[in-house]
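In the lab's daily routine, each protein ends up as an entry in a very long ledger. A line of letters takes care of the sequence, but it says nothing directly about the fold. The fold becomes a row of whole numbers, each drawn from a learned catalogue of backbone shapes. The protein below has been through that process, and both of its lines are reproduced in full:
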Amino acid sequence: MTNPNRREFCAEVGKGMLIASVGAGLAADLGLGTAWAGDDPKALGFGKMEPLVCLMQETAPDKLLPILVKRLRGGTDLGQLVAAAALANARTFGGEDYIGFHTMMALAPAFHMARELPKDDQPLPILKVLYRNSNRIQQTGGRKHEVLHPVEAGKLAEGTKGSTALREAVRRKDAGRAERTFAALAAKSPEDAFNELIEVVGDCLEVHRVVLPYRAWALLPVVGREHAHTMLRQSVRYCVKNESPGYSNQFGAVRAVLPKLLERYKLPRAGIGGKPREATNAWVEKTSQAIFKANPDDAAETVAAALADGFSADAVAEAISLAVNQLVLRDNGRLERWAQPNKPAGSCHGDSIGVHACDSANAWRNLSRVANPRNAAACLILSAWQAARDRIVLPGISFLTQEPYPRVEARERIKTNDPAKLLKEAEDAIRNRDQVLASAAVAAYGKTGAPARSVFDLLLRYAISEDGALHAEKYYRTVSEEFALTRPAFRWRQLIALARVTASAHGYAAPGYAEARKLLQV
């Protein structure tokens, strides 16, 4: 280490004296810190996982896959690879890099997708995402530019609610205070930290802010509860980074709506956990259409009233899911002015409003299932508000007047009711990027009563082989979950939408996929 010159020395002495006079806590709040100039921040460590995490961070993608396949053959399991990749991603990006956090959000879906495949093929979806993960880590400098470092828990003022303190720090864009506040909450239990975080997430309804904490929480069975703080603090940093007057004006109008509805309908109500009111098919369809057609505030009130009337959270979530599904089915495709090299005009994959809306509603449903009673109600109210907002957010586009897929012209092109021929027709349509015919073939297949698994197997194959513009894994998992949770009268709408998105995404091969197949010899 070189000797500091007089000016540097005096500056550091002066800073040290100021820290000593005001205390380390206030000094940190003022941005002074306690490290001397030139000191590197301490690294966040992961114990026995550290060697594998470092491998994920330090290895170029073209060299990583052969090493990982060799490890799999040596007894390392897929869960260990996913866990190490998640921790490497968190330490590197901290929820602040667009491609980085999309990669993290694809890990749990890829792990579930693996379980749907024959044993020899199971590593494919995971290796695809790990290649992407490694590539982005190397692009951003690897271990030299880590975002997450150890953080000391702060002290909450007596009588201050954790979510209130966290929200204030986020709104002030005070990352240090937000991190210390959240560390104090996480020291109690992962569930406590999770519930306090959810109240802050609901401050602005934007897809990544909503989906990020759910996907992080969904990884805990693989990563381990001991890493809950690491996984969830990514959401804290995401919220801080994006907070701005423009951001809150665009996404934060719900801040005034939620507390009013919780109070007006006395939610959560004692006794709601008893036997719920029957939600008939007609009720679900009517409620879904009401949410789909309403303005955001009215959609939120529709859900609050339904919960207060004793309808189950699952029935309400089903109605919301069917409402956002319409945004995929009715989308006329990406406009020319928004076209990108891997998302041309007319496409509906990637960050389309429908895919985003479905992923958000699915995240809210899952968050509500593990939240405390207050937040469980809030998650569904917020989900409805966001669903209705997503319908009207694009200027000059009216989803209400657009015909849903499968459209009449496409249905008339289907000339068979043989399940095997319909599957072949759907695959040919996907390979030709024919969204309308792919959706019509899957719709016709659904009417035959043949097993849905055959359609899932078809769409799963292309969700893995194609890049999907960072969204393929998430949306496949969203549809899988929603199909299973939706009653038979409506569930095929989910697969019709996935068929359309799959056809839209075809033709953009996933980097690393061909190499993974070659290494696995599948």
User: Anything to note?
Assistant: The chain has 27 helices and no strands. Residues 373-392 form the longest helix (20 residues). The chain has four domains: 48-145, 162-250, 254-401, 408-510.
